[in-house]
Specification:
Its EC number is 2.4.1.117. There is one protein chain. The protein has a single domain (46-327), classed as Spore Coat Polysaccharide Biosynthesis Protein SpsA, Chain A, CATH 3.90.550. It is 47% helix and 14% strand. The protein is built from ten helices and nine strands. The longest helix is centred in the first third of the chain and has 31 residues, at 2-32.
Length: 335
Amino acid sequence: MESIWAILELLLISAIVLAFGLAAAIVFETFRRRFNHTHVEAPPVFEDPTSFKPVRCPHIFDPAEKYISLIIPAYNEEHRLPGALEETLNYLQRRAANDSTFTYEVIIVDDGSADGTKRVAFEFVKRHSVDNVRVILLGKNHGKGEAIRKGMLHSRGELLLMLDADGATRIDDMEKLENQIHAVAKKGQQSEDSAGRDSTIRISDVPAAVFGSRAHLEEKALATRKWYRNFLMKGFHIVVLLAAGSGIRDTQCGFKMFTRSAARKLFLNIRLKRWCFDVELVYLCKWFRVSMNEISVNWTEIPGSKVNLLSIPNMLWEMAIMSLGYRTGIWKIYS
């Protein structure tokens, strides 16, 4: 009996030590990221593949030069990226041919890939010109959040769309997100008119974000997934609710659109580099009172997903850091 009690005491002490150690690690990491200086700060270098001359690198504070920028993070996407880019660029070219005001750029952010992703990306630059397709090289793997942040900060669009390299979401669904942002802008313009103010509002100056959503597919997914994956998904939703609050049902869909004004506020502050940066975006939208809407999009599961069960502990870790950082004021938000 005494040996059993001794084992229980040892387990209890071990659990307490582990809990304190984890708490200390979370606090340490939260303080380490408080100044937001751990990101890749070196400016990207765009190069014209025909002349090999460097092209000026824009910044999010510059005036918009294009109607829309599409930011695609790519990590070891040699095989999935070509099909997604072909579909995307064909769609963009069709719209540009029918509307002279529709100007675009596609920014591929190579997040330290070890395969031929860089080669594939530069082939599209050569085919479509550096004005329409650009590549940012991060050098080493930093995470999807960091790749998107880098692309957003060096884009030229009035509207900025992030989308995954696998082409899981139909590219023409971006019109749904566009229409929602234009509706928000129109509503703001009507408010200015009724208040007797100048109502000349550029779409890039309206702080708005639209989140593509797969929530309408959840019922079907619940019926086909393994029980433990459904359990983990529900648990993740609860943790997201505690960390960022309600408002967005599907935070993890990789199809999101921002106005230039919103992106300037959000991506200059974002600190999380990997999967949970989406949750941080929701939190920051609420902080800045950026208009948030969720729109259902067509989505197809593409083989080769990089999210797995091992991603769950990392997500929980990042959300714990985020919650502590913002709720205690350790992380300052700059406007």
